[in-house]
Recover the amino acids of this structure.
């Protein structure tokens, strides 16, 4: 079978690998000049099932962490399985974190409280309030998405065509912006936030300043700081970015950036100040960028047949990619419907009382 996979972010790459692993031809069409030209290159890439709701979605994310391990993500270099520490110092955060850890523990998700001194053994250079409440999530990880994409696209049977912008999907293949066509037995769309352009039935959140689809990240220069894992605090989230650099995200800065403008100087100053406060050293930023999330209208993934094709799109896709790639390949290639995908069909967006003419 010849399968066209549209998009080469973490989802397209994972889908293509699982299709090819079954002995099928997986041809990836990517509009950008290189693979992973979209959101996957601008992700915090924390691999977790931590704040995911409802329970079935948390379980999907937890299974996806296991799938990263099953595909040998640690050995192949994309997964850093060093867990996650979260520090709460305000009353509101303490209360929320207490309830969350208790709920996760009860559900069998690895989560517990540790002392500040125990946390300091794990992350000696991170400065936190001495009376902070500390949660420890040992099963969580972070990912290097470009390494993941490279490993997936390197699977025997996967071919990649860059500079190939798809404008239409039909039963027998796709049409490109240059007017040429590519034929296939099946088409799987993994276009992230651009999914709605080819499949208007999939309602995506349009990234605009101040909404959940827009986030700002910064990468530091290499710094003499010991940091081994994802660390969450009220003022700053930080994790290793490779080679001694740090990747930082301050959630309260996200509403201050816009999808089309450079990161404002005052946001850069805030990020530098908070890094200094958290690691006790002034560390310069190497880059700062705005990332645009791919979020369907209700925040949950959309996976399954849509029109003449099959769509896979999700926020938290760095976490979910290995699992969604496998489940999609079982449905498209093996013809076996996956019960776990039932909550994520596009049909959920159709109101029962909507006249048929209003349905896309
Ligand atoms: C600030 C930020 C923080 C995040 N943090 C996390 C996190 O901690 N954990 C987590 O799991 N997730 C996180 N995410 C989300 C995660 O990064 C995304 O869900 C994921 O990268 C989406 O991957 P994708 O393959 O679906 O889309 P993309 O990576 O966007 O890939 C889609 C590809 O399709 C290509 N394309 C677009 N249009 C066309 C076309 N017409 N024809 C051909 N190709 C086309 C694009 O060039 C792109 O390469 C974060 C995102 C952001 C922005």
């Amino acid at each position: 079978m010849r399968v066209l996979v549209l998009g080469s972010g973490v989802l397209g790459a994972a889908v293509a690998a699982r299709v090819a692993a079954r002995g099928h031809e997986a041809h990836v069409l990517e509009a950008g000049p290189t693979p992973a030209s979209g959101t996957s290159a601008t992700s915090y890439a924390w691999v977790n099932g931590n704040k995911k709701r409802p329970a079935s979605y948390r379980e999907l994310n937890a299974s996806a962490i296991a799938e990263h391990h099953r595909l040998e993500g640690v050995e192949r270099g994309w997964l850093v399985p060093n867990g996650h520490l979260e520090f709460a110092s305000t009353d509101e955060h303490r209360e929320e974190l207490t309830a969350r850890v208790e709920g996760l523990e009860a559900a069998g998700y690895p989560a517990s409280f540790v002392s500040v001194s125990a946390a300091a053994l794990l992350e000696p250079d991170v400065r936190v309030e001495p009376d902070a409440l500390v949660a420890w999530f040992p099963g969580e990880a972070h990912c290097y998405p470009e390494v993941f994409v490279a490993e997936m696209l390197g699977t025997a049977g996967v071919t990649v065509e860059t500079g190939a912008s798809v404008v239409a999907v039909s039963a027998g293949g796709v049409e490109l912006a240059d007017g040429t066509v590519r034929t296939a037995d099946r088409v799987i769309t993994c276009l992230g936030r651009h999914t709605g352009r080819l499949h208007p039935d999939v309602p995506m959140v349009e990234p605009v300043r101040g909404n959940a689809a827009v986030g700002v990240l910064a990468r530091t220069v290499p710094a003499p700081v010991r940091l081994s894992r994802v660390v969450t605090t009220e003022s700053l989230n930080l994790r290793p970015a490779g080679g001694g650099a740090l990747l930082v995200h301050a959630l309260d800065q996200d509403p201050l950036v816009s999808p089309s403008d450079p990161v404002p100087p005052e946001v850069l100053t805030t990020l530098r100040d908070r890094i200094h406060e958290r690691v006790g050293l002034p560390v310069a930023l190497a880059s700062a960028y705005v990332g645009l999330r791919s979020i369907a209208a209700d925040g949950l993934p959309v996976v399954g047949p849509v029109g003449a094709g099959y769509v896979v799109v999700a926020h938290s896709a760095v976490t979910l990619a290995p699992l969604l790639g496998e489940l999609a390949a079982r449905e498209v290639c093996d013809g076996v419907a996956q019960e776990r995908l039932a909550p994520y069909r596009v049909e959920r967006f159709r109101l029962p009382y909507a006249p048929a003419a209003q349905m896309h």
